[in-house]
């Protein structure tokens, strides 16, 4: 099984400093396609403790590879000694890395083991350049990091500015982008998304078995129905839509909560998000989704569900009502939504073949949802929200 990397090593590593020079940053973090002479890896980190909705910053600094130990591993040893050994294991931490190179295969393997043994951690990795990206093993472990729950992304102008402000001895100067920064970002991002695309897609078999909208008659089949959440996020800055697929695991956070954590980390405002769920949200997830939407009035969130979860129980109906009252649009998946979900998350090159009775069951579930709206006196409110649009 996985082991704690920090416990297996006794040598203590420390950050090289809190700030790096402007020259070091501009040389080592320049996001060139072909970066000659840049063998060192710099890792700028920030550790925050999750405290309700207001994260508390605990540590920040810079690591560099040392004694043939890569910067990522130096950080893990330090984090184990200075944070995990000192603070309560019940605390939840968010770690953000800004790296000159993405992790190599061996480092990604160690990070995976560390995350697997410490479930109270979340990790965001922003890289200026992709390391040895043609190596299949490197590609595989970047995908595995995402599957383990880490966010892996290329550094955009926003991350370079943030890194310059927090980790560079900038003398009060503003960050001045180098030539082709955005062009090189688009190149790095496209290569990374090409690799990670395989993570986000559902298999055809999984889609047909999990999004199947017929009523569940047998208990054994019921327990085989997993809670999936597929999401697509559309922005107005010209970038391609962001897509992902999340799965609730037994004994861990529900997919809706994983989704909220991921969206919060992006610090977005005006966006349109479409979610496809195998099951409608439970009451707790519904209330958290509603609170998230109320805090972001410019965001449009549309939830389509294949099946209604315990729809005859009043707490679950009340959870659905909290979604409608917050401005979230909740509907039942019909043929157009199943087709769109298939195209975006399963296989865009093959047509979706609907199963027998799909549309009949969808209409039946829609009538059931409509009766819930009416019984709680929310039909007019839902119609009003449905007429709202978000402008660019």
TrEMBL record:
It holds the Pfam family APOBEC2. Keywords: Antiviral defense, Cytoplasm, Hydrolase, Immunity, Innate immunity, Lipoprotein, Metal-binding, Zinc. GO terms for biological process: cytidine to uridine editing; defense response to virus; DNA cytosine deamination; innate immune response; negative regulation of single stranded viral RNA replication via double stranded DNA intermediate. It comes from the Eukaryota. It catalyses: a 2'-deoxycytidine in single-stranded DNA + H2O + H(+) = a 2'-deoxyuridine in single-stranded DNA + NH4(+). GO terms for cellular component: nucleus; P-body. The keyword Nucleotide-binding does not apply. The keyword Cytoplasm applies. It is found in: Cytoplasm. One of its GO terms (molecular function) is cytidine deaminase activity. Its EC number is 3.5.4.38. Residues 37-153, 204-323 form the CMP/dCMP-type deaminase domain. Its cofactor is Zn(2+). Signal peptide: none annotated. Belongs to the cytidine and deoxycytidylate deaminase family. This is single-stranded DNA cytosine deaminase.
């Amino acid at each position: 099984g996985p082991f704690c990397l920090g416990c297996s090593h006794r040598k203590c590593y420390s950050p090289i400093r809190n700030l790096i020079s402007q020259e070091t940053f501009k040389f080592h973090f320049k996001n060139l396609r072909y970066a000659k002479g840049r063998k060192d890896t710099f890792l700028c980190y920030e550790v925050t403790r999750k405290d309700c909705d207001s994260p508390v910053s605990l540590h920040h600094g810079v690591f560099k590879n040392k004694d043939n130990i890569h910067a990522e591993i130096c950080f893990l040893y330090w984090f184990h000694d200075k944070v995990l050994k000192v603070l309560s294991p019940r605390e939840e931490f968010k770690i953000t890395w800004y790296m000159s190179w993405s992790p190599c295969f061996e480092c990604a393997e160690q990070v995976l083991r560390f995350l697997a043994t410490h479930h109270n951690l979340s990790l965001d990795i922003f890289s200026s350049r992709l390391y040895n990206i043609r190596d299949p093993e490197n590609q595989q472990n970047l995908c595995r990091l995402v599957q383990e729950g880490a966010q892996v992304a290329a550094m955009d102008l926003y991350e370079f500015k943030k890194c310059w402000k927090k980790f560079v001895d900038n003398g009060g100067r503003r960050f001045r982008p180098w030539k082709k920064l955005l062009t090189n970002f688009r190149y790095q991002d496209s290569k990374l998304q090409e690799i990670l695309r395989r993570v986000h897609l559902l298999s055809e078999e999984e889609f047909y078995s999990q999004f199947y909208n017929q009523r569940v008659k047998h208990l054994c089949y019921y327990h085989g129905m997993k809670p999936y959440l597929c999401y697509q996020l559309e922005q107005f800055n010209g970038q391609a839509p962001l897509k992902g697929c999340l799965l609730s695991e037994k004994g861990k956070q529900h997919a809706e909560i994983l989704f909220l954590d991921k969206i919060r980390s992006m610090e977005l405002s005006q966006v349109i998000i479409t979610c496809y769920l195998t099951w409608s949200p439970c009451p707790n997830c519904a209330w958290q989704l509603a609170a998230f939407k109320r805090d972001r009035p410019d965001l449009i969130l549309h939830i389509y569900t294949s099946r209604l979860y315990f729809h005859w129980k009043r707490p679950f109906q009340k959870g659905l009502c909290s979604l409608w009252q917050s401005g979230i649009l909740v509907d039942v998946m019909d043929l157009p939504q199943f087709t769109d979900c298939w195209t975006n998350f399963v296989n865009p090159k093959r047509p979706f073949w609907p199963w027998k009775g799909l549309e009949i069951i969808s209409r039946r579930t829609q009538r059931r949802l409509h009766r819930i709206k009416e019984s709680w006196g929310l039909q007019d409110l839902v119609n009003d929200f449905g007429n709202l649009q978000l402008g660019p």
